[in-house]
Amino acid sequence: MSVVQLPWDEKTKTLDMPVPSSEALLPDAQERLEQLATRIRQDIRTTSHHQDWIPRSENEGQPRVLDVLIIGGGQAGLGVAFSLQRERIDRVAVVDAGDDPRRVGPWHRYARMHTLRSPKRMKGIELDVPSLHIQRWFEACYGEEAWAKTDLVPRLDWNDYLVFYRWVTSIEVHHKSFVTAVHRPETADGPFAIDVQESGTAPSSVQTLYARRIVFALGLIGGGTAYTPDMIRSLPRSKWFHTEEEFDVSQCKGQRIAVLGGGASGFDNAGTALEAGASEAAVFMRRSTVPCNNPLRWMEFPGMQEHYFDLNDEQKVEFSLFNGGLPQPPTQHTIWRCFSYRSFQLRMAAEWVKVEDTGKELVIHTMDEHGTADTYHADMIIAATGYKVDLTLRPELKEFYADILTWRQAYPPSEGTAVAASPYLGSGFEFTPSHSQAPWISRLHHFSTGARTSMGVTGNQLSGIYGGLKRMAWSMATAITKENWPELMRQFRVFEHKEVMNVVYRFGGP
Ligand SMILES: Cc1cc2nc3c(=O)[nH]c(=O)nc-3n(C[C@H](O)[C@H](O)[C@H](O)COP(=O)(O)OP(=O)(O)OC[C@H]3O[C@@H](n4cnc5c(N)ncnc54)[C@H](O)[C@@H]3O)c2cc1C
């Protein structure tokens, strides 16, 4: 039974087992997936807690209050929902602005690479259920040999796996559901009211949901927004995109594309533009070498993935500032993808100084480290310039900005550094109140990019998602136990479970 119902839910309902449409599927993939689904459900049942435990007191005529509302149904939101299911926290709903249940997160939208960047062998959103791991799904679809030969998981397979994961774990996502606002509770321990609007419709369709806890799993924009330099933002909107945006890549056909930013997304987007028929694509970077070293691979060990939180503030800031200055390299495939086109250019040590719009074309003025100027003529710009962490840019947090403790407040030496505006999170990704009048702040959990300083690699990305999910579910179950302890204790006092039915008293008992 659904925990909540939204008027537009019927429009995106999916009940059948999702089977990918790839030509590479084994002929018996459907049966193999059915067998796998049976196995997964058995495994989940075998290792599940057996009884509901959260005390309920329904008030007639009152709206149902969710234990947790998860905003965002990407890999992070789905993983959180499953981890809460494992703790038997059962009044959980996931809402996601996307309108197509076959597309999860960015993988069909703006993640324009052929494969994931994360290694295929990692603990992840399957948590403690091995049959739910991507490897088992991939093998069911394409065979064991195909998995052995696969270096990195293809991006669209990852999307299809997430669709299957959502289905097999019975996580119900309300699609087309865009959260526009979250309101403060009326009392210190009261529920939050959340405004949800059917995506793409007028605000008149807003519905209100109530939840005691909220997880913000909004993805890369979740800590603030996509960052685009002013010199690009001031150009006509039709002449530039940020890599975050979903745009029709066929617009690149016959065009000269200038990509600002030589990180992974810069190369991914140049490759996509060239594949779509761009006459030329140039990646520009300030550095004079392509980043080759991937710092994430160092971080993928239990100490970082599960225990980073326990470091002290000084150590966290030291790590975050050093790590923040390191670029994320493109994959080897992406480099080859770009260089397989003669019309690809890599312009290193080329800082953008100015962009001129002549009406006919864009003229990009660059400067190298010795002050030598150059120009490039383009028709369209793609800004691969990353993201900015600044919670005051998140509209759904508007009522809470002043109540959320930031690193600059919690640890004054961080003032003036790149981490100063990041939220100072508690052990379960919850915001910390900045003053005593907002105790409910710690029932809001931030599971996206703003979490990096407090949680390191433990979080929404695959490199540390396992540790993040365990941590968040554990901390919520702890808080729910404490909040309900008086009622749980009362239940214990009146509890009866007679296991002994027949006592034979040999020595003439009563
Ligand atoms: C090219 C590229 C390659 C990448 N490669 C990797 C990789 O290999 N490994 C990896 O771990 N990460 C990779 N990433 C990063 C990746 O985007 C994130 O790790 C991953 O998507 C995080 O999952 P998420 O659930 O936090 O966010 P997302 O998957 O982005 O999901 C967020 C969801 O929130 C929803 N949402 C946002 N705002 C609202 C709102 N107000 N109301 C309702 N719903 C809302 C969105 O519709 C979206 O579905 C890559 C990113 C890019 C762009």
TrEMBL record:
The keyword Amino-acid biosynthesis does not apply. InterPro entries: Auxin_biosynth/cation_transpt, FAD/NAD-bd_sf. GO terms for molecular function: flavin adenine dinucleotide binding; monooxygenase activity. Keywords: Oxidoreductase. The keyword Oxidoreductase applies. Pfam families: Pyr_redox_3 (PF13738). This is L-ornithine N(5)-oxygenase. It comes from Malassezia equina.
